[in-house]
User: Which sequence fits this backbone?
């Protein structure tokens, strides 16, 4: 039965805080623990988790804010099994309903923090990074042996003994132990053998368990790793034909493969981070996080972020990002939400070094986006005409001026024609990209690079960028709390700075007041001390004695 936790708001007289000496109590209240309690623990909306519990009268649940924050343990000591069951229910609820409650807590808490600190969210910066699932690196043979062992484990009980005897060589030991016993010269033969065995067991499962998850696994591996020949046998696909979205491990079917910046990420996810970037903000907070298979494009993540923040009512008017976020999809998403994309670089459309880039030309475009004219780098202007194909344009230049130009037929893109004037051929997309390049914002590079430190802070808890969990939903359950902790640390430093400034102002005010009182007393003494003893002069005899 679900019950909200309100007991923590009324402290017991014999609580740990009250029993501490005053000096230690003040130190506790000025530490990050107090910021955690006020800015995270107290803000968690426990009612979001009510669907996880029975509506019938029963024993109350362990407080959700305690399970989420692992704080305020004095109220109730619970077993680790309670925590594991809670996380399992959150995961199962996300898989069944598509609602990630941990994400909802992050968004709810962050929106309240943005409002309390009064941060401007219109200007944001964005960056993505790669994280790895908790998987071992495997060769192709190790992967297929692992698949075969996973298939055997998930087979119906009536089939296990039969296939255990048939696959005995591949089931004796862990996958790397099985592969270690196979000579290198026999590896390819074993890869084909495993494929043939998967094809046979798949045919049996299609009759006995057509809706089972194990059959889906078998069919996926066969499709990605093998080709079926006409005689019913399978043929191993060349490595170059295996897609980046292929299975990296049967223990994490969501993880994918990607090469980025010359680094290989086998079995991982991409994490996209958005944070406030207005220089007038006293502190910058993470506003949104996306976690997807690592082959997801940055422009897709930008589109998703804008959709999510718009649904929450977070205002975004401009985004500073690198060239990875540029492209047609990003342009469409920004246009839909009225957002200006201030890219510091541009991807794609690079020109060969022996030719001028399209950005070197000046393009005149109507308000509806239709190109009208073009001016070459040598100030020769002519009209743009529609080409034969849709989205293509051409421009006829003056033959005499082109003949006198030292760049004609070298770096200039204008082509010589036999029966026609020199002609420039261009597509509408090339013009749009050129205009984007002409309006890049390299001056925002110093603003954008700050988000890279945010990304490092987010991954600080995961050495080697490797998560301690598998599967996409579990990765999200790890990374949203990590983002909340990044925000919490920033808020603590911000509040500590405000407290220090306030303390200095109080000390300065007290010092000023003290100086003022001293000046008043001195003035009083100078003006009134001659009159203090007029009626009662000091006795001479008393003074002599």
Assistant:
């Amino acid at each position: 039965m679900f019950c909200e936790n309100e007991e923590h708001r009324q402290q017991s007289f014999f609580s740990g805080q009250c029993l501490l000496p005053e000096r230690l109590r003040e130190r506790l209240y000025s530490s990050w623990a107090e910021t955690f309690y006020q800015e995270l623990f107290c803000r968690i909306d426990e009612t979001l988790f009510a669907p996880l519990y029975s509506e019938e009268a029963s024993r109350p649940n362990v407080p959700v804010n305690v399970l989420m924050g692992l704080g305020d343990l004095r109220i109730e000591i619970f077993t680790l099994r309670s925590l594991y069951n809670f996380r399992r229910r959150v995961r199962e609820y996300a898989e069944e309903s598509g609602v990630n409650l941990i994400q909802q807590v992050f968004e709810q808490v962050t929106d309240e923090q943005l409002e309390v600190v009064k941060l401007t969210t219109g200007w944001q910066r964005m960056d993505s990074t790669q994280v790895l699932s908790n998987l071992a690196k495997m060769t192709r043979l190790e992967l297929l042996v692992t698949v075969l062992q996973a298939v055997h484990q998930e087979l119906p009980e009536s089939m296990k003994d039969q296939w255990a005897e048939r696959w005995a060589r591949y089931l004796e030991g862990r996958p790397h132990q099985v592969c270690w016993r196979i000579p290198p010269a026999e590896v390819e033969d074993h890869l084909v053998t495993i494929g043939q065995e998967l094809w046979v067991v798949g045919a049996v499962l299609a009759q006995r368990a057509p809706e089972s998850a194990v059959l889906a696994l078998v069919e996926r591996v066969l499709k990605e790793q093998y080709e079926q020949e006409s005689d019913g046998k399978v043929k191993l696909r060349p490595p170059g034909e295996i897609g980046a979205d292929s299975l990296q491990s049967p223990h994490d079917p969501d993880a994918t493969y990607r090469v980025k910046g010359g680094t290989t990420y086998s079995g991982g996810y991409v994490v996209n981070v958005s944070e406030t970037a207005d220089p007038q903000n006293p502190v910058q907070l993470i506003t949104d996080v996306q976690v997807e298979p690592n082959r997801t494009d940055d422009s897709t993540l930008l589109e998703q972020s804008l959709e999510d923040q718009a649904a929450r009512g977070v205002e975004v008017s401009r985004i500073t990002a690198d060239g990875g976020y540029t492209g047609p999809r990003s342009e469409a998403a920004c246009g839909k939400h009225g957002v200006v994309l201030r890219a510091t670089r541009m991807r794609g459309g690079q020109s060969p070094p022996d030719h001028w880039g399209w950005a070197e030309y000046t393009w005149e475009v109507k308000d509806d986006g239709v190109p009208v004219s073009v001016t070459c780098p040598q100030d020769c202007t002519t009209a743009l005409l529609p080409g034969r194909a849709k989205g293509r344009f051409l421009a006829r230049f003056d033959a005499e001026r082109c003949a006198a130009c030292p760049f004609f037929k070298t770096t200039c893109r204008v082509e010589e024609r036999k029966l026609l004037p020199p002609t420039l051929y261009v597509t509408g997309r090339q013009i749009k990209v050129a205009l984007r390049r002409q309006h890049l914002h390299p001056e925002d590079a110093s603003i954008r690079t700050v988000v890279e430190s945010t990304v490092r802070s987010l991954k600080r808890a995961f050495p080697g960028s490797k998560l301690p969990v598998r599967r996409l939903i579990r990765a999200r359950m790890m990374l949203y709390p990590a983002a909340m902790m990044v925000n919490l640390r920033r808020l603590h430093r911000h509040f500590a700075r405000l407290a220090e400034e306030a303390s200095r102002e109080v000390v300065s005010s007290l010092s000023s007041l003290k100086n003022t009182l001293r000046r008043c007393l001195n003035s009083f003494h100078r003006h009134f001390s001659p009159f203090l003893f007029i009626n009662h002069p000091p006795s001479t005899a008393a003074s002599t004695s």
User: Anything to note?
Assistant: Residues 102-134+277-346+444-519 form a domain with the Nucleotidyltransferase; domain 5 fold (CATH 3.30.420). The chain has a mean pLDDT of 88.
